[in-house]
Specification:
- With 398 residues, the protein is of the alpha/beta class.
- The chain has helices at 67-74, 97-106, 124-134, 140-154, 173-186, 203-220, 231-237, 255-260, 265-273, 340-343, 361-367, 381-384, and strands at residues 19-34, 37-52, 55-60, 82-87, 90-91, 107-110, 191-195, 223-228, 240-245, 248-254, 328-332, 335-338.
- It has a domain at 361-396.
- β1 (19-34) and β2 form a beta hairpin.
- The radius of gyration is 23 Å and the shape is elongated.
- Bound molecules: adenosine-5'-triphosphate, iron/sulfur cluster and magnesium ion.
């Protein structure tokens, strides 16, 4: 196991004590039926996640990795296949009726598309007033009006009179997303789950919405889940980052540690594909929203690879990676990864520059006409592959 030096103290020590929402070993399988019969999609497996008061946790992963499914499980939109969701320590996975309604008031989901999630035929006064009344947060016309003004002010839509009678189509994308956030705030939630809440907004206004979410964390103590495929925006907004790959969480830790000292090859791939993961913090905030590069093909979730699901794309894959799933290893306080490199004492490989992804070394060797590589001696593979071919296998150069 490697040891890493903690660069920063946990950014929000006081938040650590109060876990608001938690997922324990949560799994979701979907059954899909086609002309040839049915199959099981293993969309999410063994997810552990904690959301703390006054903290933003980012969940980062490429398309199809299960991010939306996790958000929907946490909002009780889907029943879990296994595991448990807990709000303030109490299991909620199977609540119904009034208890479920109470839960929906505490945990609000923000969607990607603010336009689709607002009723286009109703003005803002109606949209916000309805949320307040349904959840019993205001009574009587005067109180409802006052609360709507307060909500618009909290999301920086001021003066409120300028917005209250507008219809969604009369607002910009960023203003609409602020209305969606105001509607979520109307029910006085403890948790907000943002499923790519800025990805459909113009680049110029994305930062404003992220800053609003930070303000809600800091001033109102909300626990926030920020879902994204862009690790740079996760770094900008989040206190902690969890990395998802093919339905599983593979690494988690403070944002600074995950960015500066990634402990899973897939996190390295995300960082290497991101034009500049440090951007957004040193002034160049527009480039915070560049898209990540080509990440290659993720595996099927109907027939996921045996062992570690990343093994078909991992340049460090060893025999054991194709056989057994790696366990969670804590590499420094609060920073963990699931990768055999840690259990096999080979995590120093992660520090190499210019890792070439998508071609495990055995495949590269086979393509170069070299016999089986000794998987037990990955560090010595340059010996097994000596000669002209090693130059093509960059990361393993001595
Ligand atoms: N209702 C469903 N029925 C069957 N399969 C589903 C269902 N919902 C999601 N899936 C599958 O589960 C996997 C995870 O999907 P999910 O939408 O959670 O990924 P995601 O990380 O949010 O992707 P994206 O970044 O594209 O939004 C995908 O393979 C998807 O096809
Ligand atoms: S080294 Fe093995 S366990 Fe680690 S990511 Fe690569 S394939 Fe998975
Ligand atoms: Mg999604």
């Amino acid at each position: 196991m490697t040891t890493t030096t903690s660069r920063t103290e946990h950014p929000r020590q006081d938040a650590e004590r109060e876990v608001v929402l938690e997922a324990r070993d949560v799994t979701k399988h979907f059954t899909v039926r086609g002309s040839k019969g049915s199959a099981i999609v293993r969309a999410v497996e063994g997810i552990d996640l904690e959301l703390h008061r006054g903290e933003i946790v980012a969940m980062v992963g490429e398309s199809g990795s299960g991010k939306t499914t996790v958000a929907r499980l946490l909002s009780l939109y889907y029943p879990t296949t296994g595991g448990e969701i807990l709000l303030e320590g109490k299991p909620v996975s199977h609540v119904t009726g009034r208890k479920a309604l109470k839960y929906y008031g505490q945990v609000q989901l923000l969607f990607q598309d603010p336009f689709a999630s607002l009723n286009a035929l109703k003005p803002i006064r109606h949209i916000l007033g309805r949320a307040l009344k349904i959840h019993g947060k205001a009574r009587g016309a005067k109180q409802v009006e006052e609360r709507i003004h307060e909500l618009l002010t909290r999301v920086n839509l001021t003066p409120p009179e300028q917005y209250i009678d507008k219809y969604p189509h009369e607002l910009s994308g960023g203003q609409r997303q602020r209305i969606v956030i105001a509607r979520a705030l109307a029910v006085e939630p403890r948790v907000m789950l943002g499923d790519e809440p800025i990805s459909m907004l113009d680049v110029s206004i994305r930062l404003d919405v992220l800053n609003l979410l930070k303000k809600l964390r800091d001033e109102e103590g909300l626990a926030l889940l920020y879902i994204t495929h862009d690790i740079a925006s996760a770094r900008y907004i989040a206190d902690r980052i969890n990395v998802m790959y093919a339905g599983q969480m593979v690494e988690g830790g403070s944002s600074e540690e995950v960015i500066h000292d990634p402990q899973h090859p897939y996190t390295r791939l995300l960082l290497d594909s991101s034009p500049d993961p440090g951007r957004g913090l040193e002034g160049d905030q527009q480039s915070l929203f560049d898209e990540v590069g080509d990440l290659g093909e993720p595996p099927s979730l109907i027939t996921p690879p045996k062992g570690c699901r990343f093994n078909p794309r991992c340049p460090f894959a060893m025999d054991i990676c194709n056989e057994k799933e790696p366990e969670k290893v804590e590499v420094s306080p609060g920073h963990w990864a699931k990768c055999w490199l840690h259990q096999e004492g080979r995590a120093d490989l992660l520090k190499q520059r210019n890792i070439q992804f998508g071609v495990p070394i055995e495949t590269a060797a086979a393509e170069a006409g070299i016999d089986t590589v000794n998987a037990e001696d990955i560090l010595d593979r340059t010996v097994a592959l000596e000669g002209e071919t090693t130059a093509d296998l960059g990361p393993f150069q001595p």
